[in-house]
Amino acid sequence: QVDVAAMARLFGYVDVTDTGFIVAVLSIVFNPLFWNVVARLEHKTRVFSRVLGSAHAACYCLGAVILLLNCVRSHCFTEAMKSQPKLEGWDCHWTYYSGVAISAVGTLFVISSFLALGFTGTFLGDYFGILMEAKVTSFPFNVLDNPMYWGSTAIYLGWSLMHASPAGLLLTAVVAISYTIAMLYEGPFTEEIYRQKQKGVKNK
């Protein structure tokens, strides 16, 4: 069971009214909201493919914007941690190297997911009509679902432990919640796209 008193002490270190912390929360929440709205708009209207000349060009542009937004999010996350106090009991070698290990595992999941999916597979290419031939089942997808999202969350968790930052841990929870909500929307929608593809193949 969760030690409520310990959790209260931990997050007593966090000033949730701090401007940097609020900006970090907004950047975390904004990113998956942005790419889901843009990708669904593209799927419904093909507006970006028409403007940019092709589905691939539109997908690559969205991917570039997502990468830029992720850099902004990571910067805001780091600045929010720096502006708030560390948890002294965690500011030690054991916690630091635990954070390094967790971040390394997260990085492995993110990179291997990207290599397995490719650029368009990673950055919502199926919403642009760029569909994969078959569902990817190789590593890391044979270990857990949505390894890109959970890998990214693990990186933030590790980064927070490396900085002994209660603010970082709370922001990591926001990352996890945001990704969980995104998965609830993305999973069924993507499955429907591929169902329609299979239906089209059978009707030929």
Automatic annotation (TrEMBL):
- Spans through the membrane: 20-39, 51-75, 95-117, 164-185
GO terms in the biological process aspect are: methylation; phosphatidylcholine biosynthetic process
Q: Does the keyword Ribonucleoprotein apply?
A: no
Q: Which HAMAP family match?
A: PLMT
Task: Output one GO MF annotation.
Answer: phosphatidylethanolamine N-methyltransferase activity
Q: Which Gene3D superfamilies does the annotation name?
A: 1.20.120.1630
**Reaction equations catalysed:** 1,2-di-(9Z,12Z,15Z-octadecatrienoyl)-sn-glycero-3-phospho-N-methylethanolamine + S-adenosyl-L-methionine = 1,2-di-(9Z,12Z,15Z-octadecatrienoyl)-sn-glycero-3-phospho-N,N-dimethylethanolamine + S-adenosyl-L-homocysteine + H(+); 1-hexadecanoyl-2-(4Z,7Z,10Z,13Z,16Z,19Z-docosahexaenoyl)-sn-glycero-3-phospho-N,N-dimethylethanolamine + S-adenosyl-L-methionine = 1-hexadecanoyl-2-(4Z,7Z,10Z,13Z,16Z,19Z-docosahexaenoyl)-sn-glycero-3-phosphocholine + S-adenosyl-L-homocysteine + H(+); 1,2-di-(9Z-octadecenoyl)-sn-glycero-3-phospho-N,N-dimethylethanolamine + S-adenosyl-L-methionine = 1,2-di-(9Z-octadecenoyl)-sn-glycero-3-phosphocholine + S-adenosyl-L-homocysteine + H(+); 1,2-di-(9Z-octadecenoyl)-sn-glycero-3-phospho-N-methylethanolamine + S-adenosyl-L-methionine = 1,2-di-(9Z-octadecenoyl)-sn-glycero-3-phospho-N,N-dimethylethanolamine + S-adenosyl-L-homocysteine + H(+)
Gene Ontology CC annotation, any one: endoplasmic reticulum membrane
Q: What is its main location?
A: endoplasmic reticulum
Subcellular location as annotated: Endoplasmic reticulum membrane
Q: What is the lineage of its organism?
A: Eukaryota, Metazoa, Chordata, Craniata, Vertebrata
Protein name listed in UniProt: Phosphatidylethanolamine N-methyltransferase
Q: Which UniProt keywords apply?
A: Endoplasmic reticulum, Lipid biosynthesis, Lipid metabolism, Membrane, Methyltransferase, Mitochondrion, Phospholipid biosynthesis, Phospholipid metabolism, S-adenosyl-L-methionine, Transferase, Transmembrane, Transmembrane helix
Keyword NAD assigned to the entry: answer is no
Enzyme Commission no: 2.1.1.17, 2.1.1.71
Q: What Pfam families has UniProt attached to this entry?
A: PEMT
InterPro entries in the record, alphabetically? PEMT/MFAP, Phopholipid_MeTrfase
The way it spans or sits in the membrane comes to: Multi-pass membrane protein
Organism of origin:
Manacus vitellinus
Domain of life from the UniProt record: Eukaryota
- Biological or metabolic pathway of the protein: Lipid metabolism; Phospholipid metabolism; phosphatidylcholine biosynthesis
